[in-house]
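Thread: cobalt (II) ion complex, take 2
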Amino acid sequence: MQIQTVKTTPFIGQKPGTSGLRKSVQTFQQPHYLENFVQSIFDTVQTYQGSTLVLGGDGRYYNSNAIQTILKMAAANGFGKVLVGRNGILSTPAASVIIRKYKAFGGIILSASHNPGGKDGDFGIKYNSGNGGPASEKLTEQMYSNTKSIEWYKIISAPDIDLNNIGTFQLGDLTVEIIDSINDYAELMQHLFDFEKIKALFKSGEFRICYDAMHAVTGVYAQRILEELLQANHNMVINSIPLEDFGGGHPDPNLTYAHDLVEIMFHLNAPDFGAASDGDGDRNMILGKNFFVTPSDSLAILAANAHLVKGYKMGLKGVARSMPTSGAVDRVAEFLGIDCFETPTGWKFFGNLLDANKITLCGEESFGTGSDHIREKDGLWAVLFWLNILAVRKQSVETIVREHWAKFGRNVYSRHDYENINSENANQLVEELRKQFPQLVGKKFENYEIAFADDFSYLDPIDQSLSKNQGLRIGFTDGSRLIFRLSGTGTAGATLRIYLESFEPDVSKHHLDAQVALKPLLEIAEQLAHIKYFTGMEKPTVIT
Ligand code: VG1
Ligand code: CO
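Output below.
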């Protein structure tokens, strides 16, 4: 095995964001760009000699090229074995399953998740640790620091490996095993959920589902699990073939981008249940017949009904949500008498709580829900969880949500995104808002009075690490909240996210459209932050 030590120089800006390093494909295609980052990962995690790495991605453009490069670098750097998903495909949750099941040292997942793909789209790379979860902030900071001083990387010269066939190959001293991308994941799902009950639900002929894979990675998982194993109605997976450019779409499962599904579900003859997932399969959107379930409500409903589901009937240890996620799950936790933790945005912050057995379920408002079965959010898992509840309760999605609101009250919620705005203006908006904070407490706006205004920081209760500047929060005396955050997953300009939440205990007002109910809060947001002025936009690009 001929190991080459290739001289290189640092690239500016190889800083992992909310979920790994994401850049345009063109940026990744520059000579040494990918290699520099991969070597920086290896130099950060260090003690992997002879051990196993898991490798795969969401199938977007550049996936296979990157896999071939990483395999040759893993061989040169002394890994013992790499498990690769067939055709280079592994959804993010499947990668987490495989890392845990085979006790791998860690894994590299190639994905820019919900960002568009293709030659002119985005590419991304993230590292997951041996627990199957995203690298901690401490590790990502070390990776970034390494990228700034890198002088060389190691690679072997060898022909490419055939990724299309299951089997074992040798790359120098490294064993490369091409594995089925779905088996281990499907097996775990069968262990957690009552497949017989769900199968019976479909068999009754009275229940139809539509699943939008958005031409992304979950197409193959949904076909195997929903169509083959659960025998759901025929042709229920739409946009099922994974494409390198996601068919030109934006693989983000929300009401704006999953328009094919939305059209089907908001139609006279709509199926009973609709769902979609994102580029790498870790997000989910849940719809009923003519009905949208917000991700925050979905998390709360899963928590409140977990005792009906095979793998969770022992009860929940605790729950967690990201700070901008609505407090709906907090009310369920209080009812159940369990802990509820509030973490910064990004799945990496749930890892310690899960590893320490403090929580069973966790989720984010951004269509991410998950549990202690792995260390990533999991799109298809959430769909199966809902199906299991529906199979037991035999009620419609809408009835289940409305009954939940009647019992716990409704946390009316929405997020407004202003995408691709000028970065300087976005930072200025945040700065100007922050400057007002010392004067805000007690300030009144008609029925609303500000109770607190702060910049969210999180002290991890397990390892005591402190994460600062995780979003600006303005809380009102009636429990309503306004949150401002800049996205950490974009690749061009800045994206401003404004999260709006109010609480409505009165059932007679539960039918109100969230945008109508939240209008007064939105007006306060504009008054405080001058959103139109700084973004140069009259309205958001995406509302979820
Ligand atoms: C977004 C979401 C966040 C999620 C992250 C990764 O981050 O808001 O909740 O964890 O994407 O999801 P940001 O920084 O853009 O707000 V995924 O499915 O894109 O890996
Ligand atoms: Co994702």
